[in-house]
Design goal:
By secondary structure, this protein is mostly helical. It has one domain (2-206). The chain has 11 helices and no strands. It has helices spanning 2-5, 9-12, 14-38, 42-59, 62-71, 76-79, 82-95, 98-125, 132-148, 157-168, 173-206.
Length: 214
């Protein structure tokens, strides 16, 4: 965005934050429904849900957020970047207002819903059918577990959680691992592939990215 539109990173970076927040909200909605119905994972789902609700409340309330930001001015390392922090906050504030937040979350819910449907169809291909709701819960819950780990793409924990939930339901390890591998290839790694191709086209058109710009 900086190289194409000339917008500072501090202004556009919150777009990623908003996208992540709406991802979590939509995944939490699916997970909470599943946790209630299947009586599994309720505690961790509710805890993460409360965390994001508090985060949104803080960001959407300037009377709370601005004093917190101003407090960080006393920290020498942060003091030099306080202008960028304020700029990032203003963008976050606009993106996480109720109306855009609801619209983005609904769009995200549709997107994740299709991924859950894809996982359900993969399981059906292995003659595993616990229902679309269970597949949706399993996929969304495992994705949240991986995301909380802060590992790129939730690598390891998401796969482990998906496999564990299937094995716990009596599915053989071979089928559990195979179905997990396939769903991750067609979701995470497909997205990575699209990103690499897009970056390649970008570099051909605009030149290589300059990571030193901010």
């Amino acid at each position: 965005m900086k190289e194409i539109a000339g917008e500072p990173i501090s202004k556009t970076a919150p777009i990623i934050l908003a996208e992540r927040v709406t991802d979590f909200l939509s995944l939490l909605a699916i997970s909470i429904a599943g946790a209630i119905i299947f009586d599994y994972g309720g505690s961790i789902t509710i805890f993460i849900g409360i965390f994001f609700i508090v985060l949104i409340v803080i960001i959407s309330n300037k009377k709370i957020a601005l004093p917190l930001i101003n407090t960080t001015e006393k920290i020498p390392v942060i003091k030099n970047y306080i202008h960028n922090i304020h700029s990032a906050y203003e963008s976050s504030y606009q993106l996480l207002k109720i109306k855009p937040l609801i619209l983005m979350t609904l769009l995200s819910l549709v997107s994740w819903g299709f991924e859950c449907l894809g996982y359900y169809l993969i399981l059906k291909n292995f003659s595993v059918d616990f229902g679309l709701l269970w597949a949706s819960f399993s996929y969304s819950f495992s994705t949240i577990v991986g995301a909380v780990s802060m590992l790129p793409g939730g690598l390891g924990l998401t796969e482990g959680s998906l496999t564990f939930l299937l094995v716990q339901k009596g599915i053989s390890t071979e089928i559990a691992v195979a179905s997990t591998f396939i769903v991750r290839v067609v979701t995470l790694w497909f997205a990575v592939f699209v990103g690499i191709v897009s970056l390649s086209f970008y570099q051909k058109r605009f030149g290589k990215l300059n990571p030193g710009q901010s």
